[in-house]
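INTERNAL AUDIT FORM
Audit reference: QA-55
Scope: verify that the stored structure record matches its stored sequence.
Auditor: D.O.
Record contents follow.
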Amino acid sequence: QVQLAESGGGLVQPGGSLRLSCEAIGGTLDYYAIGWFRQVPGKERVRVACVDSSEGRTGYADSVQGRFTISRDNAKNTVYQQMNNLKPEDTDVYYCAAGISYFCSGAAGVDYWGKGTLVTVRS
């Protein structure tokens, strides 16, 4: 029903910044909570940020707290992740995902996955 398209990844030096975008194609994100995940291929995919659908509440993994900021622009059907002070350990493929209510709390699963965008942090 809806396709998620990530963009904004690339190569950045440690301490640098990137802004990722997740655009919904063919549908609206208004009623979905949105999470950002990251994964090294072959390893576990972990969530680093999430924003709910109703109140706009956000949550972050300890590893990115204070450095990453998730936000949404429902008028553009787009969710963003601003990443500052990037570290080499942030190197991963980043995915956005949409889920119904309570997705951010872990009580609901993923309905839609994006294809991912690669972030590489190295000097």
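Auditor finding: record pair retrieved intact. The mean pLDDT is 93.
Action required: none
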